[in-house]
Design a protein that fits this description.
Number of domains: 2
CATH class of the largest domain: Alpha Beta
Order of helices and strands: EHHEEHEHEHEHEEEHHH
Strand content: 15-25%
Oligomer: single chain
Structural class: alpha+beta
Helix content: 40-55%
Length: about 300
């Protein structure tokens, strides 16, 4: 069926960013519509400033934002800058999903924009994948699809902050998407890199259960904790060995408040010692026998 008017649309590759305010409905109920509206405006102005700074474009707004970026590096740096600054100022928890893919960009006529339509709309599977990726996120997290990660390779114009890094958090199956999706996290804290669980619309197929800090990312307190727990384990093993050696001597046992005669304990220790000696002797005999068999016959 022929259209009665031309539609201005084209296909292009874009970084699609979905930003969602977690628990916005509960916040409105708790704070009241007027107070909540004021906080949402503060949030939106902070977010829009970062969108402008990172050369992004606002497509739509509801309980968050639908954004697009021409460069994947700008989208990732926007997400990191946002999670680093905005939640601290607004105390609103958020999550961000990023996907790089082919999208249909539709530009509406002025008459429809005047009636309330958005100037630019995005259509296509890429928007749905970005939305599913965002739905996986935990609070304060930025997740990316494999396509977004691949798009960053070889591009040095937009580097990550010094403390940020990428990690693969698992493979997931999105509802309505036939191909399983490999999902990555990007963040500046170890908490923001932890693998998310599945949901009713996203099934987790596999991946790491926990992401550990790299040695270069550990701070002084992390190293102190690492040394403390290992030193504690070694100290415990050492004192258990000392106590065991002391328990073998009846005189020392009596000084420690234990029974001088402990026939069952002594018999058990003697049995273990004899068994160890027998196994050691058998292993030595077997080794010597193999050595003799390996010697060439003259």
């Amino acid at each position: 069926m022929a259209m009665k008017y031309d539609i201005n649309m084209k296909e292009r590759y874009l970084a699609i960013v979905l930003l969602d305010l977690i628990g916005s409905t509960a916040f409105v109920q708790r704070a009241g519509a007027h107070v909540a509206a004021q906080w949402f405006q503060v949030h939106d102005r902070l977010a829009r400033s970062l969108v402008y700074k990172h050369s992004g474009r606002e497509i739509d707004r509801s309980d968050g934002f639908l954004l697009s970026f021409d460069k994947i590096g700008d989208a990732i740096n926007f997400g990191l800058a946002y999670q680093r600054t905005v939640p601290k100022k607004t105390r609103l928890q958020t999550r961000i999903g990023i996907h790089w893919g082919k999208i249909v960009e539709v530009k509406q006529d002025d008459v429809f924009v005047g009636a309330g339509a958005k100037r630019v709309e995005l259509e296509g599977l890429a928007k749905n994948i970005a939305a599913r990726t965002m739905s996986l996120c935990q609070a304060g997290q930025v997740l990316l699809t494999k396509e977004a990660i691949v798009a960053t390779r070889g591009r040095t114009a937009n580097k990550l902050p010094r403390d940020a890094r990428y990690v693969c958090v698992g493979v997931y199956r999105f509802k309505g998407v036939s191909k399983p999706q490999e999902i990555y996290a990007v963040g500046e804290t170890i908490q923001s890199l932890q693998p998310p669980k599945g949901s009713d619309k996203v099934k987790r197929l596999g991946g790491p259960k926990y992401i550990r800090k790299k040695a270069r990312d550990r701070k002084f307190l992390d190293w102190a904790s690492w040394v403390f727990w290992r030193a504690g384990i070694l100290a415990t093993l050492f004192w258990l060995w000392v106590f065991f050696q002391m328990s073998l001597r009846p005189t020392v046992r009596s000084l420690m408040g234990m029974d001088y005669h402990m026939p069952k304990y002594d018999s058990f220790i003697e049995f273990v010692s004899d068994s160890y000696k027998k196994v050691k002797k058998d292993l030595t005999s077997t080794k010597d026998q193999r050595g003799n068999n390996d010697k060439p016959n003259k």
